[in-house]
Amino acid sequence: MTVEKPVLHYLVRHGESQSEREDPAKPLSDHGREEIMRVARYAASIGVEVAEIRHSDRLRARQTAEILAEYLLPQLGLREVEGLSPGADPERVHAELDAAEEPLMLVGHLPHLGRLVSALVLGNSGTEIIRPETGTMICLAKTERGFRLLWVLTPDLVQA
């Protein structure tokens, strides 16, 4: 009997951004850049590997993905995709993760990420089981029976 190794996927909420008043494009703040660098460094140190990092069209998500890519070196690089915006339907991304045979990292926003985790783990996007803070990385395993939440890494758990 062979046991298939589950495919791991990672969901990341963008780092803290500047306020809309400071900059309407809402780029990452200095603090946001630092929290993503800490999470990315730690993820690389524990062997997180991803084939591709996908992000929403928002500047703060792209900047977060770029920092993560510096440390995780995804062989397929970065790609902006639809379906990761704050109000997007989680079912679209659910189908993409279901079909993926290589580990992916998705960088997005609330409330979408919270609803996506619930859709993957519970089969119900209406009940949020987690509401990730900025800079949080969530690891999910895709198994024969569906998705399992393996771990959650928040920037405050990682030393500077």
In short:
With 160 residues, the protein is an alpha/beta fold. The chain has helices at 30-45, 59-72, 90-99, 112-122, and strands spanning 7-13, 52-55, 78-80, 104-108, 137-143, 146-153.
Textual characterization of the structure:
This protein has 160 residues and is an alpha/beta fold. A 6-stranded mixed sheet has the order 3-2-4-1-5-6, with helices on both faces. β5 (137-143) and β6 (146-153) form a beta hairpin. The chain is 32% helix and 21% strand.
Q: Report the uncertain regions.
A: none
Q: State the CATH superfamily name.
A: Phosphoglycerate mutase-like
Strand order of the largest sheet: 3-2-4-1-5-6
CATH topology: Rossmann fold
Beta strand count: 6
Task: Note the main sheet.
Answer: 6 strands, mixed
Specify the CATH architecture: 3-Layer(aba) Sandwich
Number of domains: 1
Written as H for each helix and E for each strand, in order along the chain, the element string is EHEHEHEHEE
* Overall pLDDT confidence: 94
Strand content: 15-25%
Global Rg: 15 Å
From the spread of the alpha carbons, the general shape counts as: globular
Intertermini distance: 44 Å
Kindly name the structural category: alpha/beta
Helix content: 25-40%
Identify the CATH class.
Answer: Alpha Beta
Count up the helices. Answer: 4
Blueprint (SSEs and pairs):
Blueprint: E1 7-13, H1 30-45, E2 52-55, H2 59-72, E3 78-80, H3 90-99, E4 104-108, H4 112-122, E5 137-143, E6 146-153
Parallel strand pairs: 1-4, 2-3, 2-4
Antiparallel strand pairs: 1-5, 5-6
Helix pairs in contact: 1-2, 3-4
InterPro entries: His_Pase_superF_clade-1, His_PPase_superfam, SixA
Pfam families: His_Phos_1 (PF00300)
GO molecular function: protein histidine phosphatase activity
